Amino acid sequence: MQGLTGRTYIVTGAASGIGLATARRLLDEGARVVGSDIVDPPSVAAGSDRWSFTRCDVATEASVQELVRHAVAFAGTIDGLVNAAGVAGGGPVHLLPIEEWQRVIDINLTGTFLTAKHVIGQMLSQPDDEGRRGSVVTIASIEGLEGTAGGSSYSASKGGVVILTKNMAIDYAGRGIRVNAVCPGFIETPMVQGIFGGPGMEATLADVIESHKLRRLGRPEEIAAVAAFLLSDDASFITGHALPVDGGYTAGRDHGVTAMLGLSGPELG
After folding, report:
1. Residue 256, helix vs strand vs coil
2. Rg (CA), the chain
3. Which of 89, 113, 231, 233 has the most CB atoms less than 10 A away?
């Protein structure tokens, strides 16, 4: 992809799942990457001078400020951000403790706000490059675009991320900063495994898979590829967009019609 080599990107949630895959993809593209999470990641780029990691709690402003200082000390400038830190949570609102609501909102929505706030502030302090200062990619969700039973706090947090993304895109376009959201479907990550991997969830998982028109869960690397594209110069005319990467989950409903028409299941003869 054009324009990633030699640039510096912060990736939150870089210890697992989408964040880890994004860090690895950006390194493969020749970028410098500063990863962060509340736990240490597995080996990412041992011995590489283009990789640095520091622990960060995205829900705490002082921790985010330290992350940005670390990135500037590491590379001198920051060219972009991928907000991949997030947690699951929810339930019907009449049963949802305020503490659990606040936990999900603090990490998913406030954490996105805080990291964007301080990274964009750093970008604005840097000289532009022919009008370009950088790019921010937030990781929202299909649950930020439509409702899901029991989603409550998670869906609310991701819906907030989508609208926050659009507002930031409007606010900073004139200063050469693009802001876009990726809205993944259900992806093979530890978070999704924690939701659907327990006993009694087999039928629910099967229904979730069936709701993706490609009839499978997504892979973290597929989300990472889209995040890298949105950061790159190949996406130079894209801002304010919430892009579903969801195997057709939000395309519409099937209701078993493709099976009736012989268009799902075994290959056509």
Report:
1. coil
2. 19
3. 231
Angstrom CA distances, 194 to 24, 187, 198, stand at 23, 12, 7
Catalytic residue among 9, 154, 172, 249: 154
Whether residue 8 contacts residue 34, with contact meaning beta carbons closer than 8 Å, is answered with yes
Q: Give tens-digit pLDDT for 60-79.
A: 999 999 999 999 999 999 99
Paired tokens of 236? 């130079």
Question: Helix, strand or coil for residue 179?
Answer: strand
Q: What is the residue type of 46?
A: A
* Distance from C-alpha of 24 to C-alpha of 256, rounded to nearest angstrom: 38
Q: Which amino acid is at 234?
A: D
Q: Give the list of residues 6+ apart from residue 267 with CB closer than 8 angstroms, or none.
A: none
Number of Cβ atoms within 10 Å of the Cβ of 110: 18
Residues 6 or more apart in contact with residue 175 via CB below 8 angstroms: 123, 124, 128, 133
Q: Across-strand partners of 135?
A: 80, 178
Classify 48 as helix, strand or coil.
coil
Our answer to whether residue 172 is catalytic in this structure is no
